[in-house]
Amino acid sequence: MKIKTGYLYHIKDDFFNIVNDENLMSNHERGKKSLRILQLRMKIYYGLYPLSSKVEKYKKIVDKKSQKYGRCDTILIREILGKDSVILIQNAFPTLEKYIDHTHLLDNGKPAKIVESLKEEILSKFKYLLKLKSKGINLFFVDIDKIKKQMLDEIYVTTE
Q1: What is the DSSP letter of 14?
Q2: What value, to the nearest 5°, has the Cα angle with vertex 42 and ends 40 and 46?
Q3: pLDDT at 15
Q4: Of 139, 143, 130, 11, whose CA–CA distance to 65 is shortest?
Q5: Given a cut of 70, is residue 39 above it in pLDDT?
Q6: Which among 36, 40, 41, 112 is least surrounded, fewest beta carbons within 10 Å?
Q7: What is the 3-state secondary structure (H, E, C) of 114-155?
Q8: Nearest CA-CA partner of 120 in 154, 76, 81, 152
Q9: Could you read off the pLDDT of 4-14 as tens digits, one per residue?
Q10: C-alpha distances in Å from residue 29, one per residue of 16, 19, 25
């Protein structure tokens, strides 16, 4: 399978079992595998952002953060595949290609992807959150450094 940035993917359950981070969002929502947007492609691992259909729940959170801080950089509510969806940048995580189960397909059989401007907006917000993290302000829910190390360790163990 050819993995491309900006496309929607489903992640294998094995990833969640191996990483075992209680702050990772469930891999299933309403009986179906949850969608993730592939945003970053590093040399050997990928960065993904969970999506949620719980727009009303997260709209309240976004409104509360916006009132308190004047903005919300951790959650975006944007149209994806013709309906409002929640992009949880705060729940971003790295993974390996072997844990990407399959590309989400549209009814016509084509791979689902997001528009370029949204891809750029997500990346900009993610880089901003990484910059804050480097200054000691961690707004990520999962331990992305620990997961990244675990993924890299897995690569080095299997290649030795």
Answers
A1: H
A2: 55
A3: 87
A4: 139
A5: no
A6: 41
A7: CCHHHHHHHHHHHHHHHHHHHCCCCCCCCCHHHHHHHHHHHH
A8: 76
A9: 888 888 888 88
A10: 14, 19, 10
Separation between Cα atoms, residue 9 and residue 153, nearest integer Å? 23
Show the CA angle centred on residue 51, arms to residues 49 and 53, nearest 5°. Answer: 170
Q: What is the pLDDT of residue 29?
A: 57
Q: Bridge-partner residues for 28, per DSSP?
A: 33
Where would I find the H helices in 11-143? 13-19, 55-69, 116-134
Residue among 70, 53, 72 nearest 61 (CA): 72
φ, ψ at 104 (rounded to 5°)? -75, 130
Is the Cβ–Cβ distance between 78 and 118 less than 8 Å? yes
Q: Is the pLDDT of residue 62 over 90?
A: yes
pLDDT tens digit sequence for 121-150: 998 999 999 999 999 999 999 999 999 899
Backbone angles phi, psi at 20, to 5 degrees: 50, 50
